[in-house]
Fold this protein.
Amino acid sequence: MNEMRFKNFLERDDGNRVGIVRFLRIGNASLHDAWFETSRHWIEDVGGERIYAGALDVVYGRSFLSFERLIIEEYPSRQAAIEVMAKSDSDIEMGLQASFVMALTPSSRFVHRMISVAGRLIRLLRPIKVREVPEVDYPKNVSLDGLSADQAQISTFYQSKQWSPFTMVSLHGFKSRAEYQIDGEDDGKRVSSGAAAYERYARRAAIQVFRRGGNFYWIATPVAVLNGDSDHPLARQWSQLVLVAWPSRMAFRHMILGQSHSRSTKHRNAGISDAIVIPGTPFEGFDKRAL
């Protein structure tokens, strides 16, 4: 347990709910499964909730893609989160080889509810039937909804079941000022900040996600690293974490090839300075929650 980080985290308490995101590499599966079940009761005892757990795509040789599992918890306060974390203060005790843990401020539940309502309406009124997209037709130079995916990650993406539910966790760093390429677009319609440019992309992409049966599972702002190397790629000063749930990887592939998505990516690229995207597979019972 990093007592100094925990102390600083508590001293900067803003009184809001807090999310804890754990990236985990398993060492002892039996020991980890025991911790996973026992810690669920600890979380509930302090009024918290484990809202997501799932496997992650692993790309060996890439430090931020070497974690096998993602767990997300929400707590009513920072003190409650630290109380639970202090009950298992070492990776060995949790059956882990390594872990990286960050604290985040979740988006408001009101915003979540509004997104959920909009998503259901769009799915009802304008659904898109997802057809199979042959692997050979998928552009190998198109990143997985971010700026950091490469051929190794895309190859790993294809190795999983393409018609089973999956999730995509994305970490975004926004530019202070949006940077558009000169492409003939009306300058008067461009936005000034990176965050605003990405918001233009997100609004358009969300419609395509909803129409294919996907939803936005969780959105939060990273505030602190509680466990992990400060030089690790995951420890950068990220602006946003987004977890998107999809009915299948094929649905995601179908969207990426769509013209609507292609037209909106210029706003994403103009607004984001850096990104990490990691696909995964939700565990049973964690695949149906929508914002």
User: Anything to note?
Assistant: The helical segments are 3-11, 29-45, 78-85, 109-125, 151-159, 194-211, 249-256, 259-271. Strands lie at 18-26, 49-56, 69-75, 96-106, 166-174, 215-227, 240-246, 272-282. The first strand starts at residue 18 and ends at 26.
